[in-house]
Each structure stands twice: as structure tokens, then as C-alpha cells.
Amino acid sequence: RIVYVNGEYLAEAEARISIFDRGFLMADGVYEVTSVLDGKLIDFDGHAKRLQRSMDELDMRAPVTTEELLDIHRELVRKNEITEGMIYLQVTRGSAGDRDFAFPDPETTEPTIVLFTQAKPGLADNPAAKKGIRVIGIEDIRWGRRDIKTVQLLYPSMGKMMAKKAGADDAWMIEDGFVTEGTSNNAYIVKGDTIITRALSNDILHGITRAAVLRFAREAQMKVEERSFTIDEAKEADEAFVTSASTFVMPVVEIDGQTIGEGVPGKVAPRLREIYLEESRKAAV
Ligand code: PMP
């Protein structure tokens, strides 16, 4: 696999980062995951804008322009012959050659940028989308700036493991009784003909897929309510689903062992998945 590191395209075994990099020592880094369908980038603009916002919120310097970023994405897709899959991008504050809690001087410290591809044939045709996934509720003990897409992913990883241990696929995190989001996706329920999902705030990641799906839902005259819901309300819902760049729209058919609706994907989530895939393929770059 050919990867990109700080201006160079290299074989992955040749790629190197300093052991003093703050991404490694302090999780002082941000990331994005963009999916590739038909060899093209899905929602690239949204991901580039959110990356800029994450860097701004952390006073991190952008290592490349958005135009350069698009070129790098395309070049990696080409070099690795990706038809369906993902591109992972990470930017860290870099390092001043020592370990220090204070940020190094941004004038003299180069940020680190790394990108690599992951081929995922069958990403759009994922069989899990036909069956739906099972989730469990767990406490949300993450920090208070979940709107910044940092690489501090230890708790979401632990959540995923708790889910696997419980025989489920993923976890929905709960704070003050209300569902915040999934370990790596935004969470939704459907009641009657209304789609309900938590409103944007610092408590959740502002999903790029979420923005697109809500726009398509409204364009298709579906009702959307942006408000918090409890895990108990979710268990009584007609449908549940999650969205993310790598799973698009994924039905949820079980929460804490309780069946949602008929225990199979309902009408709304599969329809939204279809619309999302169709529209974003058309808009892919
Ligand atoms: N919430 C969290 C915590 C996530 O990690 C992700 C995916 N990275 C999302 C939501 C979904 O965001 P997006 O649609 O931009 O992939």
C-alpha cells in the first residue's frame, strides 16, 4: 500500500513519524474518514470543512490547503486502485523534539499529516445493512468537546469491546439519561413518520453523513426532529439507525437485547440509505 506522510508518497513500510510526535504522546491530533465509491470521494467538502474546524478549535496549523488535500486523496485512490473503501487522514500538532504539556510554538513546529487508504469491496452493498445491527447502552464518560474530531478514541474502543462482549455489534453512549451518539456514528430513532436525532452541540460529533441524511430526509418531505431521546424511548421506537461516513445509514434492530419494531430493518432507514447512496454517488468528486 502507498501512504502519504508529510509531502511524500511512500510504501507503508518506509513511512516514519517521530516518537516525540504529540499525536503519539498526547493524542494531540485530529482525523477524518472519507469513503470512496466508484473510485470517487463521498462528501469530501464536508470532511475538509470539519477538519479545518477541528484544527481551528485546537489552534492547530493546517499542513496543506483544501485543494492540496483533495489532490492527495485522489492520488492515493489512484495509486492504490481503490474502487470502494475509505481514506483515513490524520493531522497532529507535530513535535518540538521533547515532551511538554504546553503546545510548541506553531511558527517553528510543523504539523504532521498522514493519509492511507483501506480497500473495502462491498462497502455499499454491506450485508449488515439488510439485517441491521444490535447495540447496547453504555455510560458516556468522554470529555466535553466531542464536536472536535480528535484521535482520543480509547473510550469509544472500550465501548465497542463492551458491545462485543455482550454479543452486540456496537454501543450507544448515554449521558444524564439521554443518548449522545454511537461509538463511531450518530444515533437516530423513528416514531411514526418522524426521524429523531440529538441536536448539534459540543456533546456530539457533527456528523457529515448526519448533515447529508437530514437534508435528504427533509427534501423527501420526511419529518425531522432534532432533540435528545432516552434509551427507553429508543427501545419503544418503531425504528432505530446510525449514520457515519463508513456505514452510511445502518439500521439498528436491537437495543440492550430488546427488539426494535419487527426486529428487522423498517421502512425509513433502508429508504434513507438508498437515497443517501444514490445522491452522494452523484455528488462524489
Ligand atoms: N460520532 C462519532 C463519535 C464518530 O466517531 C463518527 C464517525 N467518525 C460519527 C459520529 C459520524 O460522523 P461522520 O458521518 O462524519 O462519519
UniProtKB/TrEMBL annotation:
One Gene Ontology term of the molecular function aspect: D-alanine-2-oxoglutarate aminotransferase activity
Keywords for the protein's UniProt record, in alphabetical order: Amino-acid biosynthesis, Aminotransferase, Branched-chain amino acid biosynthesis, Pyridoxal phosphate, Transferase
EC number(s) reported in the record: 2.6.1.42
Pathway: Amino-acid biosynthesis; L-valine biosynthesis; L-valine from pyruvate: step 4/4; Amino-acid biosynthesis; L-isoleucine biosynthesis; L-isoleucine from 2-oxobutanoate: step 4/4; Amino-acid biosynthesis; L-leucine biosynthesis; L-leucine from 3-methyl-2-oxobutanoate: step 4/4
Cofactor(s) needed for function: pyridoxal 5'-phosphate
Keyword Plastid: no
Domain of life assignment: Bacteria
Catalytic activity, as annotated: L-leucine + 2-oxoglutarate = 4-methyl-2-oxopentanoate + L-glutamate; L-valine + 2-oxoglutarate = 3-methyl-2-oxobutanoate + L-glutamate; L-isoleucine + 2-oxoglutarate = (S)-3-methyl-2-oxopentanoate + L-glutamate
Gene3D superfamilies: 3.30.470.10, D-amino Acid Aminotransferase, subunit A, domain 2
Matches recorded under Pfam families: Aminotran_4
Family assignment from sequence similarity: Belongs to the class-IV pyridoxal-phosphate-dependent aminotransferase family.
Biological role stated in the UniProt entry: Acts on leucine, isoleucine and valine.
Name by which UniProt lists this protein: Probable branched-chain-amino-acid aminotransferase
